[in-house]
Amino acid sequence: MKQPKVRSFSRSVDTGYVQLIYLISEYRGLGLGTELQKFIRTQLRDEGCSKAMLCVSRANETALHHYKRSGWEYLFPNPKGKNMDFYQIDL
């Protein structure tokens, strides 16, 4: 499992940006994605963030399903990334 890449800054003052979340296939389905979500939220709250933002491909149905189930909400399309959208969650 790779360490999630989390930054405590984004264009919004109180919003942290999650650059990358990735679980290799043999670790999927074990509840680790949920644990990563908890870890990310804790790290960003500890940095003073009240929200988190990430960008995900519309084609990544597995990730989209997980994020939506975890409470992430659609914000807007990424103007720099074709078929990419930004999502946000309150911490």
Average pLDDT level: 86
Largest sheet: 5 strands, mixed
As a whole number of angstroms, the C-alpha radius of gyration is 13 Å
Total number of β-strand segments?
5
Secondary-structure element string: EEHEHEE
Strand content: 25-35%
Alpha-beta classification: alpha+beta
Helical proportion?
25-40%
Q: Give the N-terminus to C-terminus distance in angstroms.
A: 23 Å
Across the major sheet, the strand order is 1-2-3-5-4
Can you tell me the overall shape?
globular
Number of helices: 2
**Unreliable stretches, pLDDT < 50, 5 or more residues?**
none
Word description of this protein:
It is a single chain. The protein is an alpha+beta fold. Helix content is 26%, strand content 31%. Strands 1-2-3-5-4 form a 5-stranded mixed β-sheet, covered by helices on one side. Helix 1 (32-46) links the parallel strand 2 and strand 3 (51-57). The relative contact order is 0.20.
